[in-house]
Every structure is written in C-alpha cells, then in structure tokens.
Amino acid sequence: MRIRSLPLLAFALAAAACPTEPPPATDDPAPLVFIDPAAPTTVDALVLRIEPAADAGFTPANWVINWQQDGARFSEADGADAVPATATARDEAWSVTLTSTQTGETATSAVAVIGNSAPSMSYANLDPAEPRSDEAITVLVGGWADADQDPADYSYRWLVDGDDVGAPDSDTLSTGWCAAGEQVSVVVTPTDGIDEGEPITAAAVLVANGAPLPPSISILPAEATDADDLVCVVTESFDPDDDPTTVSITWAVAGNAYPLGVPGAIGPTTTTITGDTVPAQDTAATQNWVCTAIANDGSYDSEPSTASVYLSAGPVSDFSLEDVNATSPRFGQAVSPRDYLQKVSGWYFGHAT
Questions:
Q1: CB neighbours (10 Å) of residue 132?
Q2: pLDDT tens across 35-50, in order?
C-alpha cells in the first residue's frame, strides 16, 4: 500500500506546482490625462497632468507623450510634459495623448481651446501738468502689451474732483468740463475689443484760472450806409471760471486805427460800451469798418474777435436843380443837396415881399 501511494503523492505535488489559472497581466493600465489649465489663454503654458489608474502602479517610462495642435501632431513637443505659451495662439485647439509602449493602448485628454489674453499698459500722464481752465487736457498713455498682438486701444473715464463728469470717451478733455480750483484725473483702460486689462488712473492735476473766451460781437445796422451810426454790439462774453468780464472795443477803417488814423474824426461815442459807436459824420460810402473786441477777467485777456461792415452810399435825394452859378465847377449840372450832405455848410439869405 505504501509503494502504490507514492505516484499519487507525486502527482498531487506536480499539480500544486503548475496552477491552471493564467498569470496576472504586467502591463500598466491606461491613466487619465488632463491639460492644465483647462481654459488656457495665450499667456498660459499647457501642462500635462496624469492621474494613474487606482488598481495598479503607473510607470511613466512605459508611455509616450504626443501633443496635438488643431488635430495635427505637434512634434516639437514630443515627450514633453508641457508646451510653452509662446507656441500657442488664440482659438487653437490642443490635446495630449499617451501611448503605451507595451500594448499600444492610448489615453487622450479633453481638447483645450486657447482663449484671448487681456492687454495691459504701463502709464497714463496728463498734459499739461498745470492746465488752465481755458485749455484742453490730454492724457498720454503708453506701454501697451498684448500676447495676441492686437492693436492698441483704450477707453477713458474723466474725473473732476473725483466724480465722473460724463465727458466723451476720448483722450482729450475739452474746455468747459472743469473750472479753476478743481482737480482733474482720468481712468484709462486698455482693451483689445474682446477683454479689458487692468485700468490705470492718471495722477490728478489742479486747474488754474483761465482766460475768457473771445466775445461774440456784431455791427449794427448789418446793412449800413454812410448815413448810419455804426454800433459794435457784444452778444455774449463767456468765462470758463464764471469770473465777471469787461469788454474793450476798438475800430479801424481801411487799415487805419480810428479815430487817430482818420483825419477830422469826431468819434467814437458810446451807446452801451465805451467807444462802441462810430457816428455817421466820420464815415463815407464804400468804406469797410472793422470792430475788434477783447474780454478781460481781471487776470487774462481773451483772444480778439472781429466783425466788419461795408458801407454803401446813402439814398439819393428825390430832387435836384441846375447849378446856375457861372463860377461853380458844376455850372449847368443837376445838383442835389444830398451831394454835399455832411460835407459843407451853407448860409442862405432871402427876401420876400
């Protein structure tokens, strides 16, 4: 009995040494593959992130890395765990694939689309640094940078004493938006038409007193003759600081200052403002008279404003008589008193019975 049992024991030992189940697989399981950040812009590097399967160890050396740009292989990044930002551009679609060197199995990330990058700027300064209220203020900007190479563009929000005054979206604040003693600044925001960058607020400048604007004037009557008095009328005088203004008026005719340059002149006279009137006695037909007005606020003069009028001849008398004076230069001609209006004086003596 003992001798016959030996082969059975040997068979049992041989069966235990050669199991019937296949050995477990030694290949790495496919990992999960991601791109960080998930929503990149043109200033972000694309970084590979791997999460190995939980049921087995992951051996990076057993996997080959390949990147895809708009669906095509980007061989310049083969084997790399990141793609630099300089290699990407807005609206491109990127993915990354890991391929097993043992089984050929692949694992691919979700597609990451490159988004727009907001622009930036480095400075904003106001010019002039010491403005007057009658001067426009301009902001000088610079240092534009945009990873997408978009052209420079900016939006502007003007502040007076810290408040948004609703001025036009422009790099220049025109006159009329601020007055002497107020502080002006501006918030400048870079924009590429898609996104806005970080705004910069220019250092405030203090506005000084400004000169009045040139007054608005006209000459009356507008269709004057040499029989009319000429009056220079100021229709408006504006000061940006609401300072009271005084207006001075001067006249000229044929390029000569009036009255000094006009022999025999008796004027000017005053209707409303000193010297605003030229009496008809000092004029003649076909002359061109010019009025000049300058406003002053006690500190500054405005730029001059001018108005002019051309004098036509006055109406002709409705009667005339033949000159019967044989010694007269006009003997035998028709003569009207109008011909000598304001030119001569005459004495007439008569006798009637």
A1: 17
A2: 999 999 999 999 999 9
Please choose, from the candidates 112, 37, 41, 38, the residue with its C-alpha nearest in 3D space to the C-alpha of residue 74.
112
Cβ neighbours around 124 below 10 Å, total? 24
What superfamily would CATH give domain 32-113? Immunoglobulins (2.60.40.10)
CATH class for the domain made up of 216-310: mainly beta
Domain assignments of the chain as residue spans, ordered by start: 32-113, 123-206, 216-310
Cα separation of 267 and 264, whole Å?
Answer: 9
More confident residue, 352 or 286: 286
Residues with Cβ within 8 Å of residue 124, at least 6 apart in sequence: 139, 140, 141, 186, 188, 200, 201, 202
The whole-angstrom separation of Cα 58 and Cα 151 is: 47
State the Cα–Cα distance between residues 75 and 52, nearest whole angstrom. Answer: 24
Q: What is the CATH number that goes with domain 123-206?
A: 2.60.40
Q: Identify the weakest region by mean pLDDT among 118-132, 158-172, 306-320.
A: 306-320
The DSSP code sequence of 75-98 is GGGTT-SEE-GGG--TT-EEEEEE
